[in-house]
Amino acid sequence: MRVVPSVLESVTVHAEGALCTRAFVLSPENGHLPGQVRVDGLPLALRTGSLRARVVEGPADLLVRDLKPTFDVRLPPESELPAEQHALEAAEAALSAVHGRLERVRSEIKALRNLTPTWPAQRKGQPPREAPLAAMLSLTGFVDAELAELQAQELDLERQHRDATNELELRRRRVQELSSARNVDRARLFRAALLTLSGPIAANADARLVLEYAVAGARWVPTYDLRLPRTLEEGTLRMRAAILQRTGEDWTGVRLAVSTASLERRAEVPELKSLRIGRSQPPPARSGWREPAPGLEELFAGYDAAHVARPESVPARPLPPPMFEEPEPEADEDAYEQEQPYKEMATFGGAAPGGAPPSVSAPPPMPPPMAAPKSSGAFLVGGARPSSPRRSAAPAVSMPASRGGGGGMDRMKSKKRAVEVDELEEAPMADMAMDEGGGAGDELRRAAGLEPADGLFDYDSLTLASAASSAQRGRLRPRPALVSQAMLSLTAVSVQVEVVRLEAQAFMFADAVHMVTPPTWSVPPRESARHFDARFDAEAVADVPSDGAWHTVPMLTVPLELKVEYVCVPSVEPRVFRTVRLDNASPHPLLAGPVDVTLGDEFLMTSPLPTLGPGETQRLGLGVEEALQVARNTRFEEASGGMFGNSTVLTHHVSVEVANHLSRPANIAISERIGAVPESQKDLKVEEAEVVPPWQKPTPLPGEAPVEGERVWRVSVPAGEKRSMKATWVVKLPSSKMLNGGNRRT
Fold this sequence. Notes:
Layout (H helix, E strand, L loop, with lengths): L1 E3 L2 E7 L4 E9 L5 E2 L2 E7 L9 E6 L6 E11 L8 H31 L19 H44 L11 E10 L3 E2 L4 E9 L2 E11 L7 E10 L5 E9 L41 H7 L23 H9 L1 H9 L29 E3 L25 H18 L1 H10 L3 H10 L1 E3 L9 E3 L11 E3 L6 H5 L9 H13 L13 H4 L6 E3 L4 E3 L6 E8 L1 E10 L3 E12 L8 E7 L2 E8 L7 E8 L3 E14 L5 E14 L5 E8 L11 E8 L17 E8 L4 E13 L12
Parallel strand pairs: 1-5, 2-13, 11-23, 21-28
Antiparallel strand pairs: 2-3, 3-10, 4-9, 5-8, 6-10, 7-8, 11-12, 12-20, 13-18, 13-19, 14-15, 16-17, 21-22, 22-25, 23-24, 26-27, 27-31, 28-30, 29-31
Helix pairs in contact: 1-2, 7-8
């Protein structure tokens, strides 16, 4: 088998996860291409079910026949380990040495403190001995001198221990900040792909193949950069992608693309059910299901003959619960059963000496279990839950009579139960007849309303049972959920490595990207993409390390039509705000995200940009313009009107003056609001008496809520000049009524 090197060419980052594409070249040896190759160095967070391979360039008869995932274990030399790992190991060794010296000094100090003179016991009838003062003083002086020296060493070693602990913590953080692609383990575990080609094939030129796989641990959010000149007459909007990845491999010099599509969403053609009018008919069988071929057991006759001499031990399984309840025995039979259990066990497995019951920890041997009904899968009855397994009809086992009598009753009881079992197990035997294959079983299943479960149509999750399983061999069945991907793809690893733990740790590190806080004002692509999916390709190759941090990658320049407009609502806020109307003239949708606004050579602010589809228009706020000033004055008059004075006339006068201190003309939109009369109030009237210059009702942009009664002046004020506007409107209402909140509304 040839191991070929591969190069990561392109990466497409989806809303969650990424799709990577690797390319490798096969060179012919002795005029032939190999029939099997191996691609190593794949990330450990690879999803094994996403592996795809195809031939891009090469002979016409070169095809990829099979593709299997496996593992690759590498033992790198010391020179390939990063310097941070060597520094970490040196810090650990230094801390261990200092800790050992400190513990040794502390043990010596403890021993010296226990070094005190001992006084012998006084004997009766003898005078007390004279104390050796010279020796005691010499011992005390020795202990004090040694303790002073050792305590000084202890203080110095404690300082060294504290410094070594801080150094070790620093080196650990440096290692944690490394890219996840720079593995610091002595034994490195990678994924690998084993490709079987339609070879060997005679060829004189190289063949180029592509391997695709999906990995977890990648995210992206859109960001934008808007550059405007001081005049605000034109601008450039660039789309950027903030990418975060911890997949286990660095993306260096790759063609990068981002997509709003979900990598986990299944794209399957829906199965539409037909609606029939007329006589009721049974639903047609689902396509894709095929009954086991007749004579399936004959295919394993050779296997059974070869393994009959050394049968494999089958682990004991708990018997399924019975589907039928046996009738309760009579009183005399119940009493007999309470007296006989140990006697039956002793008779079956050998009589115990003295008639004593055998130990419970050594149960008697059970008869070999019958083969389960040969079912080709799980079935649903009328769309309900899967039916419980049924017991197969087992022959009655005749037990020899136990010592102490009762054999006749035992035989009668066994015969009675055998008859009951034969009668009650007719339905399971019918199921066995159906499952043996053929049209009869199919017709019986349809008559009973049985439908194959949905799990039996998911062929990616089905596995073929082993030939040693006489009940399920030759049939596809759902793969157990407890079997992980690592155990399924573990085929050729001969080094003792904790594969399952390392793979689970790799997926845990990959999922940690969802805990990282995104940039301010950012919105996940799936939330802002509305009902469409889009893909954006970067203009140049990019580098994104696998360090778990956000990296900004420029994607494309979006052609926009900019229109600067100053907005002011003097009745609420006298200040004037700068806004830019963005018209998306590109075929690409602009997703919601933060936009960094640069005015000239100075960074202005960061604003949230809403989702902007092709051809849509949105308004982007740029803050307050101090060079524009607005003054608003109001006057209110209230009088009686009507022929008999039975109505109230409210006259509102508003005058607005705008001063432009900029060096260029400014287009300003000044908003006012007049009273709006609901349709239910027929006796109220609002009339616009005098408006100079004329105003108009505004048309709200997409995403902006309309304001009832809003009017807008759109004026152009030259540089260094002023403009005045005034409006008068009259509200007429019955004298018995008053406006909510007071008649004065300006």
